[in-house]
Design goal:
The chain is mainly beta. About 5% of the residues lie in helices and about 45% in strands. The strands form four sheets. Strands 4-9-7-6 form a four-stranded antiparallel β-sheet, with no helix packed on it.
Length: about 120
């Protein structure tokens, strides 16, 4: 990507951030946020191949990779010890679907098994 310039941008109540302006961005994008900026403001990257962090005693919406398309019934199931997937009908689009995963453990766990 070719840079067009730099500006300072304040997002909400945050301090100003230096933003690099790009000449061309991919189609259908108004703005691209870099990993460095997202991490500075507290976003945690979840990469399914490495596992997804599930906080202790939590319900987490998880994006699950799939090759299927259209609607799909997900049966409730135990994915790992004391980690459950809720049943529901999900929409498979963009090579993934979202489902609710419940961690009943008293400690954070890494989800590596998917429904």
């Amino acid at each position: 990507m070719e840079t067009k310039g730099q500006v300072e941008l304040r997002v909400g109540e945050t301090s100003p951030h230096e933003i690099i302006m790009e000449e061309k961005v991919p189609a259908n994008c108004d703005l691209l946020l870099g990993q460095d900026w997202l991490e500075r403001v507290g976003y945690q990257f979840q990469i399914p191949d490495l596992g997804i962090i599930l906080p202790a005693h939590s319900e987490t919406s998880v994006r699950v990779p799939t090759t299927e398309k259209g609607s799909r019934l997900i049966e409730s199931q135990e994915l790992q010890e004391n980690i459950f997937c809720a049943s529901g009908v999900v929409e498979c689009a963009d090579s993934s679907f979202i489902c609710l995963v419940i961690n009943c453990n008293p400690t954070d766990k890494i989800l590596k098994e998917f429904p």
